[in-house]
Every structure is written in C-alpha cells, then in structure tokens.
Amino acid sequence: MKEKIYGLLRQLCEAEGVSGDEKQAAACAERFLSGFAKTRYTPLGSLTAQVCPGAPGAPHLLLTAHIDQIGLIVTQTAEKGFLRAAAVGGFDRRILAGQRVTVHTAKGGYPAVIASTPPHLQAGEEKAPETDGVLLDTGCTPKEAEALFAPGDFVTLHGVFRTLAGGRISSPALDDRAGCAAVLAAAEMLAKAPPACRVSVLLSSQEETHGAGALSAMQALKPDVALAVDVSFAAACGVPAHRCGELSKGPMIGFAPVLSPRVSRRLVRLAKELDMPFQTEVMSGATGTDADQIASAGRGAVTGLISIPQRYMHTPVETVDIGDIEAVARLMAAFAKEAHEYAAG
User: Fold this and answer.
1) Under a CB-based contact definition with an 8 Å cutoff, are residues 142 and 81 in contact?
2) 205: Cβ–Cβ under 8 A, 6 or more apart, which residues?
3) pLDDT tens track for 7-53
4) Selection from 114, 120, 210 nearest residue 155 by Cα
5) How far apart are CA 321 and CA 166, in angstroms?
6) Each residue's pLDDT tens digit, 88-107
7) Is 149 helix (H, G, I), strand (E, B) or coil?
8) Is 207 a known active-site residue?
9) Which residues does 111 contact at the CB level (< 8 Å), separation at least 6?
10) Choice among 207, 281, 318, 326 that is catalytic
C-alpha cells in the first residue's frame, strides 16, 4: 500500500494547483477516482465523488481534504520587464527571495525567479519583502512581458519531490496533497469493501484562501458525518515541541469545540484497536482547517479531524512520513465501517 500511496502522492504534488486554479491537481485525482467512483466538479472547482451508494436512507459519510496549494498571483507588470506579484495563501516571506518559480499563463508556463538584493548591496539589516510586493524576473523586455503575462496569472514555486531517509518525503504542496492521497487511498479500500453508509469524497478548492471550496460544496453534499484530513505541525529543530506532533508517530487526532467529541474519542479507540501509533492535537477554538467549514455549513455535520504531521509548512520543502499517510487512510477506512452510528451526533 505504501508504494501505491507514494506513486499517487508524487503525481499529486507534481501537478500545479494554486488556490483558485486547481484544475491540474484535481484532474490527477479524478483519474485515480474514475476507476471506482463517479466524479463531479462544483462551480468553485472542488472535486467530489460518490464512492459507495449505501443502503436506501443510509447516513452519508464524507471523506475530505483540500487540493489547493499556496502560490503567487501576478498583479501588474513593473519597470524593466519585471512582474509584480502577491501571495495566494500564507507564505513565510523569509523564504521567497531567490526562489525559482513558474508563471502559468494562457499560453503555458514560463520560468522566472524572485528578485533578491545581494547582501553586499543591502543597507543595514534589510527586511524580507512584503508578500504583496514580490518582484519576478522573467528575463523579458518590458514589451515582451506585456505580451506574455497578464494580471491574474498564477505562479508556483519550483520544488522537487524527493525521497529522504526513513520513508520520508519532501516536496512542495504536501499541504494538503498528503491529505488527498490518504483520502483517495481510503476511498479505494472502501470501494472494494463497501460499508453500510453512503461514502463520498470531497477534494476541496481554496482552503488556503478562507475555505470557500468546502463551504460551497457542503450545500450540495449535505453529509451527516465527515472526516477531514489536513497536515499539522511536526517537531523540528527550533520549533516549540509542545505545539507540535512528531513525524512517524502516526495520525494526529483532533479535539476542538467544533469537532464531535464522540468521533474524536472513537478515532482514538480505533487506533488502539488497530495497534496503530497515534497522537492527539487539542485546539481551544477553530481548527484552522476545512473541518470548521464542514461542521458548521448549512444544517451542520458531525465532524472529525485527522492530521498528518508535517515539517516546514508552507515552504517548497514540506516533509512528511509516508507511513503516517498510510495510517490515516487505514484509520478512515476503519471508521467508515461504523460511521452510521455517529450520524445523530
């Protein structure tokens, strides 16, 4: 199973999909789902699929993760052929200078670099540029830039999908293509051994820009129970350990006011029954994920949250453990077998 997840994850991460322009990444997931599910798109570009029809009147379980990634968007052409761009999602501005990027235009992708002032020419301690004032150098003359690029063109940072030691993966867009891979793997398992409930998948758009994809999809899907999967912070050098999970230590099961305590507690018991390592993540308010939208949209849904530990969030070198992704998929598939018991809350 790990090998299959690895291959799927690589395809997902190497597909572009900045918030608001998730078509390529969603198409990759659609190809996988089409082997066992009927897929549809929402007007905002979220991908949905019915995996198991369930018995007549059976409760509806939704498995969901977000398909979009952070990026940039061209705001205008600047002097000397440079492009001015702003962040789409929560970039750490310290990592932007000197990065390689691709500008995605109507005519295709064009390479560029983010401008950086050499340290020799900086006056004192120069601050990192604000994320709404990034300059991109495409090598074009002003006339060429005007012809090739337009405001609204999306931009992705260049990164490499790379295997590290110990079953760990480093890549851009693991937030949240890692969650998508877990959802897709669980969906395939359930298609082969359908539970009593109806099962759908949502790979939502625009989570990184306030969750409009999940919120709008809930109006059509109306699940009774939902399991959302995202990434969360994993311990690393220089970060507060008490605020983080750990790589290779299994799923992070969420507890928060917006989440169902019954579902969270059952996920903990299931992990123990499966002899699976797990961690808990307690949030005193909102979760900061699509779970917030899903739990509260429309009539609301009984919702659980499972997170995959990840280092270096919102950088081109996000890092996860493939074993943690597999464990999340197994945990969701096990929960689906009894999800009908939680439909009433």
Assistant:
1) yes
2) 19, 20, 22, 26, 42, 44, 45, 46, 66, 67, 68, 212, 213
3) 999 999 999 999 999 999 999 999 999 999 999 999 999 999 999 99
4) 114
5) 8
6) 998 877 888 889 999 999 99
7) coil
8) yes
9) 100, 101, 102, 103, 138, 158
10) 207
